[in-house]
């Protein structure tokens, strides 16, 4: 479990003289989530022409992911792959400014994905720039949701106070709705209804 900081690095980034580089984090355990990130590649490359971007990817190494990392670097985005582990996740959350959570609304598997990655980002005190799927829309008041990562990044960087407020509210919501006690009670209610 990560201890959620009460402020985002986005606000520190905004206060820095010169600003760059902007540190982005993407993480997932499945290849189809990586393919969704690759759909954002060209949009991020446009931003990288004006703004130095550092992209940390936390995932299981594979030929597909390693090839994608090379593509990001060729486009001027400083991308690094970190093999997935709890320690790597904690380190990368602590180091990033924003979390990228792209989705593929045309893929049934990602379209029906749970909000667990979004919840992890909020819990860690990092503002998510997320794609459009139903489980993310349920948490839309705590994040930025859309199909253009550049638009989301610009939105976050020009509204530091709102980012802070959304993160605070999101962390409170996650603590209340996704705690072990809350999830256990929900499962107990399901089983009790099934046995009644």
Could you walk me through the main structural features you see in this protein, from its secondary elements to its overall organization?
Helix content is 54%, strand content 15%. The chain is of the alpha/beta class and 196 residues long. Strands 3-2-1-4-5-6 form a six-stranded parallel beta sheet, sandwiched between helices. α4 links the parallel β2 and β3.
Topology:
Layout: H1 9-15, E1 22-27, H2 31-39, H3 41-48, E2 53-59, H4 63-74, E3 78-83, H5 86-95, E4 98-101, H6 108-111, H7 116-123, E5 127-130, H8 134-137, E6 144-145, H9 149-158, H10 160-177, H11 180-195
Parallel strand pairs: 1-2, 1-4, 2-3, 4-5, 5-6
List keywords for this structure.
6 strands, 196 residues, single chain, 11 helices, alpha/beta, 6-stranded parallel β-sheet
What percent of the residues sit in helical stretches (DSSP H or I)? 40-55%
Stretches where pLDDT is under 50 for at least 5 consecutive residues are: 1-7
Number of helices: 11
Distance between the termini: 35 Å
């Amino acid at each position: 479990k990560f201890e959620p900081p009460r402020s985002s690095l986005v606000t520190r980034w905004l206060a820095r003289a010169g600003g760059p580089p902007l540190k982005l984090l993407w993480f997932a355990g499945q290849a189809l989530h990586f393919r969704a990130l690759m759909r954002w590649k060209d949009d991020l490359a446009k931003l990288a022409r004006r703004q130095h971007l550092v992209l940390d990817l936390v995932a299981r190494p594979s030929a597909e992911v390693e090839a994608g990392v090379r593509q990001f670097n060729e486009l001027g985005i400083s991308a690094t792959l970190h093999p997935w582990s709890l320690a790597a996740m904690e380190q990368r959350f602590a180091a990033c400014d924003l979390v990228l959570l792209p989705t593929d609304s045309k893929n049934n598997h990602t379209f029906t994905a749970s909000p667990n990655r979004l919840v992890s980002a909020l819990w860690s005190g990092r503002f998510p720039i997320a794609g459009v799927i139903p489980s993310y829309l349920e948490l839309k008041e705590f994040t930025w949701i859309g199909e253009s990562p550049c638009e989301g990044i610009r939105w976050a960087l020009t509204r530091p106070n709102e980012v802070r407020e959304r993160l605070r509210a999101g962390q409170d919501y996650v603590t209340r709705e996704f705690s072990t006690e809350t999830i256990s009670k929900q499962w107990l209610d399901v089983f009790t209804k099934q046995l009644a």
